[in-house]
Amino acid sequence: MPAVSDAVKALTVARRQGMTIRVAGESGEGVITAGEMLTWALGRAGLWVSTFRTYPAEIKGGPCMFQVRFDRRPLDSPMGPADVLIAFNDEAVQLHQSAVRPGGVILYDRHADGSVPEGLRTDVTARSVPFGQVAVEQLQNRLTKNMVALGATYAAMDLPLDSAKQFVARRFAAKGEEVVSINIRALELGHALAREQLAGLGRLAELSEEEEQAAAEAASTGKRRMIISGNQALAIGAIAGGCRYYAGYPITPASDILEYMAAHLPSFGGVVVQTEDEMAALGSVLGASFGGVPAMTATSGPGLSLMVELIGLGVMSELPAVIVDVQRAGPSTGMPTKTEQGDLNLAVYGGHGDAPRVVMAPVSVRDCLDVGRRAFETAEAYQTPVIVLSELVLAQRTESLPVPSGRDILKRFKPRTTADSLDGAVNGAYRRYRRTEDGISLAAVPGNPAGLHVITGLEHDEYGHPSYEPDVHREMSLKRWHKLERLRREVESRPDGWVERFGPEQARIGLVGWGSTFGSAREAARMAEAMGIPVKGLWVKLLSPLPVQILQAFVDGLEAVIVPELNLSGQFAHYLQARGVRGPIVQLTKQEGLPFSPDEVLARIQEVASR
Amino acid sequence: MSVLETEVLPQLPQGVTLKPSDYKGIKPVWCPGCGDYAILNALVQVLARNRVDPSKLAIVSGIGCSGRFPAFVKSYGFHGVHGRVLPVATGLKLARPDLTVLAVGGDGDGLAIGMGHLPHAVRRNVDLTYLLFDNHIYGLTKGQPSPTTEVGHKTHASPFGVAEYPLNPLALALIAGATFVGRGFSSHTKHLADLIEQAIRHRGFSFVQIMTPCVTFNDMYKVWKEQAYEIGPDHDTSDFQAALHLATAAEGLPIGIFYQAEKPTYLDRLIAGVKESERLKEARRYDDEADAAGLDKLLERLQ
């Protein structure tokens, strides 16, 4: 294996300001594999990486795209103009060339007659390489087109081909020696083909000798990085937080969590079930939780709709449960492969009766790791369902992150109550729903002789016996609300980890939001600041109960509060107002199934600033 | 305790015994004469004679007259929502294989709203016992027809007579692959108690249909008493075809065990399929050293 520092040196030369590479083609042409290979190679060389992909809902056919952004400093978002576009066909050129910055590079598959794709931009460096022809004629395997193209890209960018070869060896190992070697040959052919005419096209700027050295050292002295997706991070966070039962029904874009748990939870002593539907998934999670075992399910919008009945049961029976909703676009089945922040209302309010529940939202892939763990901590501590609102763009985006140690992320809830600590629990005197100041009662689990009780979705008294008395319903409703009030107060007094802030304190323009919009917003704020417009931001990770005091303190004194969100109706902006946050709110909504680019947020900032 | 060696009926400490009445919880609220009283009595007899530890017993129910059952038994109980009894019971048993888990539900609860869950609970063969209280009517919602109500039966919701044909729950359970299928009748209480005991002792998913007349909306006492007979010793309970025949073609109302087979359970299969299954087997869920090492391994794979 070549020395890591050599690879890093080659990579970091010219990578000073970071780059964005977009691979585009037809689904089935190997776009995603090529993108993942770039991601892995760049991440392994010590660069920070963030990716974004779009793909059709169909298994074969339809355009797809994989974008890799990398830099020497941590990235907020994978979005932004591409420096290099690798187009596997003409349609990909037409669909994606507008995403290339002026002066950028487009590599496209050569036409047999030497013509150029229709409408090809002239303000970019466009070069044709016979990806397809080489794959078919020299390798007798058209499936290797993506590797030929990738080899050419490595040549254009002066990237060391060894990292790509390592990836191929690892990724295709299970498919046999022949598959590995033909893919490696494809890489080499593509690289050789393009080396002379394309070398250095992707170069941005030279590094100083000092910088080169620093980069090489950073990568070789154990600052290890991993490439991780939001779904993987949530699953690992959940396991670290104590999850030992998982049930789910397949649905895009949450299925990765089911698959990841199925592969890994049993070796932690946990059980995984693919259920017949989403009601069964959450029902079984509540059953496991009643047994004292922390449990989770993950779904997407349509599945969350079905689960609403069981969320009410979890709230009423006061059972901990973690429900991940990886949001996708639209009502009904909508757009399964597109992103949106449209489930806030459902998560916070969904269901009949007053059913207070906790709703959390991670802001980045890194944050998914923490939120996965924290969701279990919160569910157990407050004995209530916790809904985690993730999003397609967080779930499927990969980022390079420093590798934590297992011990560092391992943090478990306190186990539910044992016989000795049950309050006055002799001969059936145990009160599962004993009223306390903060609404939290001692919870016994089966096996505890002192804690026999029956839980029910019916309104009940302190013992769990069904009761329809007016006083009981009022008091028990208050009990359930009080738990959330306690959580809100706790978070407001110790907001560490529950909010993300950025920008200068004295800024007069603010950004407030939740979820994945964080990255683009923070980047937009940096761009605005560079233009002389100071902007500060506050992203809350706890949506229910909403930390209103923190939000109000942030908003107070601002001239404008821009609320970017990926839905048309402005669900979060309305929610803020409904919870009593008062201020000059300016909505910024988008409903295209795509995330914000930093430019889009910047445009609204400029507009507000020029008023 | 190993998952594989879970006790079927976890017992009280040596020397401790409880009377059947000691297993009763709060006073039942069923209509006087309801068949469900007899089911309750049959169950508490089974619990007493097996010295079952109430703290290791969990009864899960749905909604309806049967739904109140857990409150009437002194044990752990989960009175859930309509039709979801089997998912809840499945999660509880898989998470806590050391518990004896009983699922109880009615014909409306389990064969209408909950029907989608039945074949899947069956095919997982989780080691739990499902008692389906069948009175051929919706009792708690005051007499609407259920999926087992006879054709032509007139109710307020079917003033011209029920137009649908009834489901056959035993045949459904058999076809889905249940490893224990039986039928009892509340009026044959001793027989019912024995049947419930065998169902609980069976390792795998046990399906028991219990005929329990509703005196208020569908009084079938007379008809069922005339029709009911105990399945004779000549019936081979390992013969699937014979069981299906008995469930579909037999005259009258045969009661007893229709079919019984030994098959690996869901957990058996999971343990067999997982290379590092030691922790699953031992049901040793939390171990800081092992968990930290396991997490390191997951993180290693991402590099």
UniProtKB/TrEMBL annotation, chain A:
SUPFAM superfamilies recorded: Pyruvate-ferredoxin oxidoreductase, PFOR, domain III, Thiamin diphosphate-binding fold (THDP-binding), TK C-terminal domain-like
Annotated Pyruvate flavodoxin/ferredoxin oxidoreductase pyrimidine binding domain residues: 237-474
Domain of life: Bacteria
Annotated signal peptide: none
Pfam families assigned to the protein according to its UniProt record, in alphabetical order: POR (PF01558), POR_N (PF01855)
Alphabetized InterPro entries for the sequence: 2-oxoacid/accept_OxRdtase_asu (IPR022367), Pyruvate:ferred/Flavod_OxRd (IPR050722), Pyrv/ketoisovalerate_OxRed_cat (IPR019752), Pyrv_Fd/Flavodoxin_OxRdtase_N (IPR002880), Pyrv_flavodox_OxRed_cen (IPR002869), THDP-binding (IPR029061), Transketo_C/PFOR_II (IPR009014)
Keywords: Oxidoreductase
Domain Pyruvate/ketoisovalerate oxidoreductase catalytic: 28-191
CDD domains in alphabetical order: TPP_PYR_PFOR_IOR-alpha_like
PANTHER family: 2-OXOGLUTARATE OXIDOREDUCTASE SUBUNIT KORA, PYRUVATE-FLAVODOXIN OXIDOREDUCTASE-RELATED
Protein name (database record): 2-oxoacid:acceptor oxidoreductase subunit alpha
Species the sequence originates in: Carboxydichorda subterranea
Lineage start: Bacteria, Bacillati, Bacillota, Limnochordia, Limnochordales
TrEMBL record, chain B:
Pyruvate ferredoxin oxidoreductase beta subunit C-terminal domain location: 214-270
Cofactor(s) needed by this chain: Mg(2+); [4Fe-4S] cluster; thiamine diphosphate
Record domain Thiamine pyrophosphate enzyme TPP-binding: where: 64-210
One Pfam family it belongs to: PFO_beta_C
Keywords: Iron, Iron-sulfur, Magnesium, Metal-binding, Oxidoreductase, Thiamine pyrophosphate
Protein name: 2-oxoacid:ferredoxin oxidoreductase subunit beta
PANTHER family the record matches: 2-OXOGLUTARATE OXIDOREDUCTASE SUBUNIT KORB, 2-OXOGLUTARATE OXIDOREDUCTASE SUBUNIT KORB-RELATED
The species this protein was found in: Carboxydichorda subterranea
